[in-house]
Amino acid sequence: MTTAMMTLGFLAWVRIGAVLLVTPLLGSISAPPLFKVLLGGFLSIAVVAATVPILEAPARAGMEQHVPILVLQEAFIGAMLGFGVQTAFATFSLAGSLLDIQIGLGMGSLYDPVLRTQSPILSTTLELFGGVLFFALGAHREFVGGIANSFHTLPAGSALTVNSLPIIARQFGVMFEMAVVYISPVLLGLLLIEIGLSILSRVLPQMNIIFIGVPVKIVCGLTLLSVIMPLLTTPTSRVFRYLSAYLAEIPN
Question: How far apart, in whole angstroms, are the C-alpha atoms of residue 111 and residue 119?
């Protein structure tokens, strides 16, 4: 094995390790650091073995630079690739947080007297739901393929250019857009409930609308969410399509 190929394998391990460090997939299951290191090493070996004919020349060219600079470049590229996965799952978390606030469950996330921790209810639920669909819809294969393809479009030893900034900014905006789209039927239903409660408070001013409104919003909000839950596969697959497009465009 040549020195250039050893350098290529090390840089591939740095890039993939940075992706695994940033992505919430392994963090959500509290994977031990040794598992992440071994998984990153296994994926780097697989990537190098699959791309040797293409990347051997760039690896030799990269030997002319200082190794610390190459490591920083690869770590930054991996972090940017992992940022796409982070925003995809943040979409579900943000959608759940919006529902927690609108339904009224946000008060329960301030403090849990039993566990003495913050416990966002719907935010955690939708994030876990998105994680299940991530594997059920096969998005994990596109994720691994996007990492491998990044070594074709942006060989080890290369660096991201300013052309990547609009792509990163667009992915950040997609997170907020899809979070609202994801739960828009529930938000619309809660808006109609708010209008009905406001009319009711005008008709019956002696009624304690806060005492009545909070349980009504919780029951109706959770009911609406359970009704649309089977339909969330479509917007979830759309979120993962944006992720696949990001992984394909960011290395260019």
Answer: 7
